[in-house]
Amino acid sequence: CRGPPKSVEILSSNFSSNFISISAQNTTFCGLTPSKYVYCWGMVYNKGNSTGQQICRGQNQCDWDSIDVGRTHICGSSNNITYCWGPTYEPKQVASNLSQVSVGDTFLCGLTPSNLFCCKDLTTDNAVVCRNTSTPFVTLAAGSGDNVCAVDKNQNLYCGSW
User: Fold this and answer.
1) Nearest CA to 64 among 106, 26, 17?
2) What are 98-132's pLDDT values in tens digits?
3) Rounded CA gap, 146 and 93, in Å?
4) How many helices and strands (H and E) does the chain possess?
5) Contact by Cβ (8 Å): 78, 101
6) 8 A C-beta contact, residue 110 and residue 130
7) Which residues touch 5 (CB under 8 Å, ≥6 apart)?
8) Residue 10 carries which DSSP code?
9) What's this model's pTM, rounded to 2 decimal places?
């Protein structure tokens, strides 16, 4: 961090739920509640109200396990299925069997149930590509541009370009 924020604005007051995780990128902000609901602000989500836009995957499918905001996409996981969406389209399935999904500028990465580190280009319909290593990964993070990092169970840090 480069110091305190230049300005802070209350986006939602008296919100009916606490957030267990939040994610932000550029002008988009999303939060995940303990009841597994996702609310987003910014881009096209604000629509003049202070409650945020609730995000669902079709009619009444509003439960999420995780959420992450990238530069051009927002992605969330529910029951090991990953969905992504943007300002002009609704959530659509882009991958399965990934957890701890992290979104970069135009890609997402996640861990498989066997803790393989896998990524997918969100600008194409190409398949998910996994890095085959003998040591399982425990966490990962995608950054701006095409940068991504992961930590294996031995606490080794791997970083590189997607």
Assistant:
1) 17
2) 888 888 888 888 888 888 888 898 888 888 888 77
3) 22
4) 0, 15
5) no
6) no
7) none
8) -
9) 0.79
